User: What shape does this take?
Amino acid sequence: MPVTGVWEAVTPHPQGPDVSSPHRPRRWPLTAFAAVVVFLALVVPEQITRLPAGTPVWRALVRVPLEAIAVFTLLLVLPRRARGIVAGVLGAVLGMLTVLKVIDGGFFAALARSFDPVLDWPLFADGYRFVRDSSGAAVAVIAVVVAAGAAVGVPVAMVWAMRRLAAAADRHRLASRRSLLAAALAWLLLAVSGTSFVPGVYAASDTAVALARDSIGTVPAALRDKREFAAQTADDAFAAVPGDQLLTGLRGKDVLLMFVESYGRDALDTAPVRTALAGGTKQLAAHGFAARSGFLQSPTAGGGSWLAHSTLQSGVWIDNQQRYRSLVSGDRLTLTSAFAKAGAWRTVGVEPGVTYAWPEGTFYGYDHVYDSHTLSYHGPAFSWSTMPDQFTLKSFTDQEYHRPGRAPLMAEITFVSSHTPWSPLPTLIGWDQVGDGSVYTQQHAYATPTSQVWPDTVKIRSAYAQSITYSLDSLISWVSTYGDDNLVLVFLGDHQPAPVVVGDHATHDVPITVLAHDRRVLGRMAGWGWSEGLQPAPNAPVWPMNAFRDRFLTAFGPASVSRPLSPPR
Assistant: This one.
């Protein structure tokens, strides 16, 4: 029988099937399918969903995989008994790398970064809780089952595909050798010429090797990062400062630190947000308030709010879960604990997004934490958001801010209405109408559901801008209604929204504003170079988020005391 090459395994015999083998008629379609599966696993780029706009996907697949050349060369020289075992092992490895590649794609879509196989496993639990809270327990369970099935099924399928292709190559050894030689020459030519049909995706592919190298390299990098982080947290310029020398410039003030979920720099490019900030600046000025605004660079994007919160509070860069866990298990001075150490404030955390035990509250230094269970909300959840921001502010006002005979307050308040998926959204109502939150039942019934927003990118971006506007309007309205001469308000974003809103190349910048009635407070910030008003100018300074703690403590400490800043990262 003439040798026709490796392609004989994937095409019918020109003279019809071999009657000596009853299975020959169905051999080639399965082998062809196995070849396609392995080829795609090797050449599909990690960021296949992030190709330049208008680029056909097929152009990113016109590639020659180096790994296929190396693997099948190895399989051809191995003894037949070892060939199947090695093919199976290599198939399992390729299957696991394929799973990692899919996870990477999800991380880029949601967080604008790749998956860290050493540090990011705890994020899957947070992902499950997000799906459960936004789409229901049934959907969350189905998602887990599908993900688990894929995590097992993909490696199994890849083992089968590799073993089948190894057997096909063995049946047609001469043609396989010739094909491998031609592929190797083609790969070298493409590599030397730097041929690319899509920017950044080279036709001479080594995607699987690069992914394996990067994944293995995360282990020593994580160990090294752990040592470096321990040294950074130990180096604290304010750890030994006596309490009576901390925050002397804010004595007698109520200092509220407010995080606006997903309030990123790109929100300032939307008309509704610009209008809200411009109108808010005038409205608050009429009540005697002034503001200064700048930018901070967040350690995260798309999600991971707790990384931003801990970075701002602690003055060290927290960009992964390992750093976060190390931080909250230690005794690093935070902004909140600095107020507590000063002894002149009651410290409160208002965290409507916390739906389960939150031991980190002790690390931050709160005297009391209000969570989703203790804010006394009796209305519907708006997707992931457990309650509207306006209700959160009203509950804080009733339970703390207007409590008779209270001490000055330092409170961190987290807004959640602008959390993805940004629909359905509440609307602003009169403060005397908020009550126990049951008034929102009717709003929720008539709000635009998520299912009508997420199929359309334009609608997603519009809903995002509306959600940020609602949060800002709630804040501005609260200050206008309840703010007094002793109020000092610091509000900022935690991170930029997901790439579906801002694209794949957005910065990590978030706006930050300090608002006060007492001009002496803003006078202590004179050297910061921030813009006047609630909206920072495009050229306003950008600090790394971890720089804020030390600058804030320095600005509002005794004027005669000068201290070096802690290391930036």
About this structure: The mean pLDDT is 89. The chain has two domains: 6-220, 247-555.
